[in-house]
Hints:
By secondary structure, the protein is an all-alpha fold. It is built from eleven helices and no strands. The longest helix is centred in the C-terminal third of the chain and has 31 residues, at 174-204. The termini are far apart.
Amino acid sequence: MEHEEERVSTPPEAHEVPTWLLEPQRYEPARDRDGFIGKSMLSITGVLAGFRLDDGRASRFSPSAPAKLVLGLGVILLASLSRNYFFVLILLAALLVRACVLPARALKRVASVSVAAAGLTFLIMLPAIFIGQSQSAMLVATKVLVSVGCALTVAQTTPYNELTAALRVFHVPNLFILTIDLALKNIVRLGTIALEVLTALKLRSVGHSADKRSSIGGVGGVVFLKTNEAAQTTYDAMCCRGFEGDYPTPPARPWRAADIAWFAALAAAVVLFAFLQGAVQ
């Protein structure tokens, strides 16, 4: 009995808590810079914001999609060929009037990208001011502002599928349309994948990383694998749906009243361009 009481009252050493488990854990990871991840995420987010394909909304007085393509190319061509700064300012004023009726989100997008492109162009042309060509810098910057603003206005006021159908109206090759279609859609998709991988990398990054180049390779490898997978999936989906690379031409539609009005405005701009261009010469 005495031996049994000693066996019960004395706990074995195997059940004792080790001393190292009782010590407090104070792990403080070394500080590290994650500017690469943050800047990469901001850059990808900006690219995705610029390649959204679901923002196009046609307004009540907008012309048809084929007419928008002709009008947009016509305005860009006139602005590019003009050597009269007053004519370019007239085009800019017309563009501003058109931008006033855009939705707030579309207006913000058009204004930010156009002003940024014009500002960058002005900085590139800044040395021309020091050689006595100050008007050239302003002229080129304003041309870029008009051209980029016009292109973005067409994109923001036209659904993506209507733009694709409008290309077939002008007999653009199917291969060209297919390349643009798949490229724009996959840029957004792969950008989203890269953003998700960078977010996961940032959440799992603890402490100091001496080799940040391996992170670039890892992100690039994941995106490459996803690209291969997306290409195979797209090909299988096309085969299942019987797609042979042919974009059918939409049926001919009667001209809208808005189309005639906008083409009349473009014709007036061409006449004014010829008059002011002759005055410059």
